[in-house]
Each structure stands twice: as structure tokens, then as C-alpha cells.
Design goal:
With about 270 residues, the chain is α+β, with helices and mostly antiparallel strands. It contains six helices and 16 strands.
């Protein structure tokens, strides 16, 4: 992806796929070029998974590359870069009956002393081997993009219109150098959590210093308010039940949010 600033507007180019023009002052996103071979599924993927998160970040939202789930009545986020196993792990948890709120992007807002998550959409983006392992009885799937073998899967536990919820904790997935031999859950400092939020957030214009300064402040405030841990585990399908059980036990021991009665952002 490449970015060009055109006055107050931005041109996002996905080579050989499509170009989008973002006009924040006009509250408009336009498709200005659709390359041969880019079907509707590809354009939808680029728009909702790449363009919109960056547009919302430019508008002052903390737009995280994170899944959101409800486990034991607690809302947790799983952060990680592409390839870390975030979607597969979210699928495992959803298949065990936990509610998937969002897979690839979650919007985070501060409201007083509380932090809220607004999910984007609940479908998962999974490779065929993950779909086969997680849904042996089959699942409703549709193409994600013409250039990828990934498919979109909507788990039965997903909510078509996911609610905004107070966040109870964060899990950070990093792509391991070597496969872990066991599940590890290591508490993170506020400083480490802030760095993770910065690293795993969408941005439109990193050269915009005022916006980046505000972004750093938001990440710092969120990091001070939420418990976080670094998660590593064996990347083997036959070990995933144990991984999920370890996460469930960790979440069950979390104190939980004191904010269910708090006014949600915008209310």
C-alpha cells in the first residue's frame, strides 16, 4: 500500500488492486480506480479492513488491529500483527461458545476512567486449513479477496450488530521465532502495553505530528487503565483446546470491569 497526500485529501493505492481517495473534510471515501481482476469481495476487503480503519484513526479514533470477544461476561481484546494467529485463536474461542465481536479491527474509546470497545464486524478471515480444523462439520464461508485463499467465516456465536462494551483486558500475540512448547501468559507493564498499542494500531498519516501526539496520549491512557499480558502458545491445532482453556482460566480470574452502569461514549 502507498499513500500520497493531495492537499487535505489522501490517495491510498493498493498496487494492481484499487485506488481510494479519502477526503476527511468532506467526510467522503471514493473508489477512483478498480484494477482488472479486483472483484467485489476484494474491494469490500480493502475498504473495511484497510481503508476505513485508517480513515477512522485520522478522525481521532484509536483503531486497533485486534479481535474482540466476550469470555465469562468479560470483554477482551487480542492484538497481533498479520500471521500471529489472532484470527485462528479467536475462531477457537468462538467455536467453544464465546461471543466473537470483531476479528480484524476494534475501535477503542476512553470515557472518564473507563475504556470501551466498539467492534467493526464479527466475521473471521481464515485459511482453508484453519477452517477445516475449527469447523469439521462445515461453516458458511465466502471469498475474502481474489488474490488470497482466505475465506470469511461468520461463527454462529457472532452478533450481527455487536454492542459497545467496557474492556476488561488485553492479550498480545507476537509471531514467535520458534514454536512455544507450552502456553505462557506474562503480565505486561503499562509502558510495554502502550508500545504494543502503538505498534498494532492503524494510522493514515504518520507524518501528521499533532494527530500522532494525540494518538500517543490515547495509547498511554488506555495502557494505564487496562491489564495486559503477552500470550505465547504451541502453534498446533491439536494443542488449541489447552490454549483456549488457559485463556478462559486467566479471564475467569480477572476482576472484571466496574463500568457496566457507566454511560457509553456518545451517550
Amino acid at each position: 500500500m502507498s499513500l500520497t497526500r493531495l492537499g487535505n485529501d489522501y490517495l491510498l493505492r493498493f498496487p494492481d488492486l484499487a485506488d481510494f481517495l479519502l477526503q476527511p473534510h468532506a467526510t467522503r471515501i471514493s473508489l477512483v480506480q478498480r484494477c482488472a481482476g479486483s472483484n467485489d469481495a476484494t474491494l469490500e476487503h480493502l475498504l473495511i479492513d484497510q481503508v476505513l480503519p485508517r480513515y477512522l484513526a485520522h478522525e481521532g479514533m484509536l483503531s486497533l488491529h485486534a479481535s474482540a470477544l466476550v469470555i465469562d461476561d468479560k470483554c477482551i481484546l487480542i492484538l497481533g500483527k498479520s500471521g500471529a494467529g489472532k484470527s485462528t485463536l479467536s475462531g477457537v474461542l468462538a467455536a467453544r461458545g464465546h461471543t466473537l465481536l470483531s476479528d480484524d479491527c476494534t475501535l477503542v474509546e476512553l470515557d472518564g476512567s473507563h475504556v470501551f470497545a466498539t467492534p467493526t464486524y464479527p466475521s473471521l478471515r481464515l485459511l482453508p486449513d484453519s477452517i477445516e480444523a475449527l469447523y469439521p462439520l462445515g461453516a458458511e464461508v465466502r471469498p475474502m479477496a481474489h488474490y488470497s485463499s482466505k475465506q470469511r467465516v461468520v461463527p454462529q456465536s457472532g452478533d450481527i450488530d455487536p454492542p459497545t462494551l467496557p474492556i476488561d483486558g488485553l492479550f498480545l500475540l507476537d509471531t514467535p521465532g520458534e514454536a512455544a512448547a507450552a502456553v505462557t501468559l506474562d503480565p505486561m507493564s503499562a509502558a510495554g502495553t502502550c508500545v504494543a498499542l502503538l505498534r498494532h494500531s492503524f494510522q493514515l498519516d504518520p507524518g501528521d505530528r499533532p494527530r500522532m501526539a494525540a494518538h500517543l496520549r490515547r495509547c498511554s491512557e488506555v495502557a494505564r487503565r487496562l491489564p495486559a499480558c503477552r500470550l505465547d502458545y504451541p502453534r498446533r491445532y491439536d494443542q488449541m483446546a489447552g490454549v483456549a482453556a488457559a485463556i478462559e482460566a486467566h479471564v475467569s480470574a480477572m476482576p472484571g470491569s466496574n463500568a457496566p452502569q457507566a454511560a457509553q461514549p456518545g451517550s
